[in-house]
């Protein structure tokens, strides 16, 4: 492959990838595995590393195409890369079929216990955890942005979920990049999870799940997200000037898990982050009813069709 071209999506979807390395005037590029690209500066770096992951869910295409275009411009322009980068297209099989996943929701598999199954997505999660762990051992100071798109609409177009393992840490670096990425809101989760960002957070990284727009087909226009390309370029190039954009902070106050037996979601026309009146009935089960307990509370990720024991929704509250 030419040193002035890279085909991130094409290479990542190839089940028999050409695991090669090349060097440009800006950095060293190495394909470690299918969909796993490591990029190192030519000179030693003292900046925090960055892991950028996309396609944990295969139909969340906005981040996939943004990262593909970012890498294309990085190689074509040969600008100087000043921080170590690990870029991953996580679930190629689900991208190929245009579905959220093939057999298992991969964003529930990033822990040794969760990935013990021998199903293909479980094996892929184990492979990715190994690559990430090796990268973090080499670069213990860093950030992880796991980029997704939501299934439902949202009053906050770009938002982030910070895993519980990051509670109490200095997150200034992460929050600074939220401003550059024009993130509208961020939510502090308070429960352990087996998400990709939780895995890296447990290894010491400042990590977040970053939601960009809604699920789209791979050929849908992404024009309104193209300004993010300049911010990804700034991320690769190193320190950046402060940004005045200020996201709204939220905290998870309750997680609704689907109970056994009868269960009904009572909300109609749900929108992420939309404030709900106190007393609004969210859902009903055989023995429990879930209500909005405080004016201004909102919901995230409402999904009435999840299996028993899985998350139906997060109840969130703005932090003032």
Automatic annotation (TrEMBL):
Provide the AstE/AspA barrel-sandwich hybrid domain boundaries: 246-318
Q: Which GO terms describe its molecular function?
A: hydrolase activity, acting on ester bonds; metal ion binding; succinylglutamate desuccinylase activity
Record's keyword terms, sorted? Hydrolase, Metal-binding, Zinc
Q: Which Gene3D superfamilies match?
A: Zn peptidases
Q: Which positions fall inside the Succinylglutamate desuccinylase/Aspartoacylase catalytic domain?
A: 48-220
EC numbers, comma separated: 3.5.1.96
Required co-factor(s) are: Zn(2+)
Asked whether the keyword Zinc is assigned, the reply is: yes
Alphabetical list of InterPro entries matching this protein: AspA/AstE_fam, AstE_AspA_cat, Aste_AspA_hybrid_dom
Q: Which NCBIfam families match?
A: PRK05324.1
Task: Report the protein name in the record.
Answer: Succinylglutamate desuccinylase
């Amino acid at each position: 492959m030419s040193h002035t071209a890279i085909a991130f999506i094409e290479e990542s979807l190839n089940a028999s990838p050409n695991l090669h390395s090349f060097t440009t005037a800006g950095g060293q590029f190495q394909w470690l595995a299918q969909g796993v690209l490591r990029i190192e500066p030519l000179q030693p770096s003292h900046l925090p590393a960055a892991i950028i992951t996309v396609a944990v869910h295969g139909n969340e295409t906005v981040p996939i195409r943004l990262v593909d275009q970012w890498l294309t411009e990085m190689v074509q322009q040969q600008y100087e890369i000043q921080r170590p980068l690990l870029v991953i297209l996580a679930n190629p099989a689900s991208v190929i079929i245009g579905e959220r996943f093939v057999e298992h929701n991969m964003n529930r598999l990033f822990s040794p216990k969760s990935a013990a199954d021998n199903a293909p997505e479980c094996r892929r999660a184990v492979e990715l955890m190994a690559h990430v762990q090796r990268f973090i051992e080499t670069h213990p100071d860093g950030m992880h942005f796991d980029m997704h798109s939501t299934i439902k609409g949202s009053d906050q177009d770009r938002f982030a979920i910070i895993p519980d393992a990051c509670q109490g840490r200095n997150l200034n670096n992460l929050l600074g990049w939220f401003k550059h990425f024009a993130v509208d809101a961020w939510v502090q989760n308070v429960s352990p999870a087996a998400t990709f960002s939780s895995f890296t957070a447990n290894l010491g990284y400042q990590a977040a799940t970053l939601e960009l727009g809604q699920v789209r087909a791979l050929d849908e226009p992404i024009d309104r997200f193209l300004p993010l390309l300049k911010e990804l370029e700034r991320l690769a190039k190193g320190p950046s000037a402060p940004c005045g954009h200020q996201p709204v902070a939220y905290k998870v106050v309750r997680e609704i898990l689907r109970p056994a037996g009868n269960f009904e979601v009572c909300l109609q026309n749900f929108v992420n982050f939309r404030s709900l009146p106190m007393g609004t009935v969210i859902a009903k089960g055989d023995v429990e009813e879930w209500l909005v307990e405080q004016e201004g509370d909102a919901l995230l990720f409402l999904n009435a069709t999840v299996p028993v024991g899985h998350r139906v929704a997060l109840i969130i509250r703005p932090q003032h």
